[in-house]
## 1
Amino acid sequence: MAEQTKNQEVIILWQASRLTLTGEYIVAPEILKVHGSAIGTLGNFSASIGKAKSKKTFNVSAIVAASLKNGTVLQYAAELPENKRKILYVDTEQSPYHCQKVMKRIVRMAGLPLDKEPKNLEFLSLRRHTPEIRIAIVEEAIYHTEGLGLVIIDGIRDMVYDINSPSESTKIISKLMQWTDERQIHIHTILHQNKADENARGHIGTELNNKAETVLEVAKDKLDSNISTVQAVHIRAMDFEPFAFRINEDAFPELVDGYSFDKNKSESHFFDYSELKEEQHRQALEATFPESERYGYSELMKALKRGYATINCIYGENKLCKLKTFLENKRMIVKDTAKKYGLNPDYHY
């Protein structure tokens, strides 16, 4: 009897899965875009990958903030339907204290007050639970949150015991596909890259690459660790131009204007020692640091641009990054304990 019931259920599922040539099927609504290219649609899932300290969570904070305000933050433009404005953020790695810091950052970036709970954002801290319990909690929240449109899973690796287990990986990816399809939501996950290469970690990373509609790579700039770049390593829609961001003094990610992605791999990653004479550097640095001025990172880059322009050196963002690294290595500029940069007038060139 049980076998007959099971067969009947399979028959129903089979019939419900059949497509027809003349049937009308709805195009998945696009809720997240970068430069006009869709990176997130309802009924699908996407992922961010990156090495440790690449600022993946800062990048995802911008996605959530854009979705909260239904506008643009960084380069992410969100357009959630009126009946799909709720956002669920799931963190599997951090303590409640650090999760709250992320939540506050998102709320501030969205331009919302900190003394009032955001009505469209629910934040879950699941660090203390086992993978099975985490999955169960997330599933319960997804199916019982009215108006849900976007789900963030920061640390999908913690939804499985073994990231190299094909069965566990297939199970959690199947869950993502089931949840997004049945609830018509979008899920964005975060996963580390391997230390030795650019691939997402483990078998679960392979499954993500195969099934996600978009995979974003967040990477530290090779010349300046304060800058992170974002590009699509896999996207079903039209590809978008990569962009770069840094963290400003308010602990917000902000765009790096004029950043140029180096397509010429043979180009030097270093500022040429012989490009300028010591006298030219000193003149430019005195213009950069009038009256022993000290700067945070963002102000320093702007000040260096202005200072070196006084000696007719007009540098773009990439060149300024090389210059900053050069100046620090030569101890021509130094950073104090408050992370402020200042001129070291007694440097030896």
## 2
Amino acid sequence: MKGEDAVTKALLAAADRFYGVPGYPVSGVLEKTGAETVINEKVAVEYALGDSLSGRRAAVILKNVGLNACADPFVEATTQGLIAGVVIVAGDDPEAVGSQNAQDSRYYGELAEVPVIEPGPGNVHQAVEEAFRASESFSRIVILRLTPDLLDAEVSPGKTGRMGKKGTIAPLNLTMNGRVQRARNMLGSMHEWSETSSLNVRKGSPAFVGAAGIKDPSTLPAGVSRISTVYPPAGTLENILDVNELGRPFVREHQYLVPPAFREPERREDRGYYRSFCKDCPFVLAIRVLDEQGISVTCDAGCCVLCMNPPFTTSLVSYGMGSSIGVAAKSTGVALTGDYALLHSGLPALIDVYEKKTPLLCIVLKNNCMGMTGGQQAYDILPYIAWADPVICRADDEARLREILVLPESPCMVVIEGDCPEGRHHETVEC
């Protein structure tokens, strides 16, 4: 069986949803899985995270440079957590045969602090399922690195049972620093997972990484090792004289990496306070209406994240700037974003949602400024979203808000207009 077909078969068995953007060398995998093609890689990851929150495993299929486009929600997911597994199937092109460059996706594992698995011809099926299990065990996205060598190779047919478990999102009472530390505390378990993984075969020197010429592990000649869990590193390589890798010397560079010491995550109660909306914020009324009507939302970065703090229970998670629309389209069905965040990077998801007629209520808080970073001037969004035929409402019109803030049967955009108060400053509330 060709590697491409083996990867496809394994993905179909392990995941529930598939998204992606075509590109060498993984266009064939995208096509054979029937993956939904989306407007860009960032939206693909946002959709996958929305599925995750709804308990569905999702795979995102993209080429190496596509990781750059989805980096924001990808990295944010490590801090915020997830529920069902999400795997990015990254097609690397070490020889730049069909790509702009030879970017090595494994380095994103270090940046985002996520597991990176590079399967070999003898463990494709096992590696795919293990990627989803690792995602759920460590509540973060996992990278499955594929190269043309593997996709074109003859591989051993395999089968592995699906054993899904649930990840967790970060507890709401953690501060942002606490969320970061909670995620970092799992690195010790990730190192242990890599060290003991059956995906790796240790026999001695030299060592081959992933698909670098090694077939079925049972046929490895004496004195040869194979490494598939390339991040975190699978222990030191002190007794290995030569490491054969496709791409840069990633494994060699990280062989002595050790996890950080455990630290208790900071909670709001420990810090003694939490932050809330500015006094006399005009948009608090809309948040209260959503709360009272029992409408759960996916919130964006910016002032919207404050609806995750007391006294509100409107949202549980935020995956970064411009992410709420894509995530909500596959989870809550309601996105809460600011006007600047929408223009910053939310428009592609909005276009994709309207193109596919996905039921979604997109609520935009329009204050014409960047409220979280000091009130810098923002562009007027209305000229750029006229095609969406938005419903426009003043922030103080409670009767109208209760009428329009309802779950729709098709894409719907509501723009709530309000002016930030003079001397605005987010309130600090003692716990």
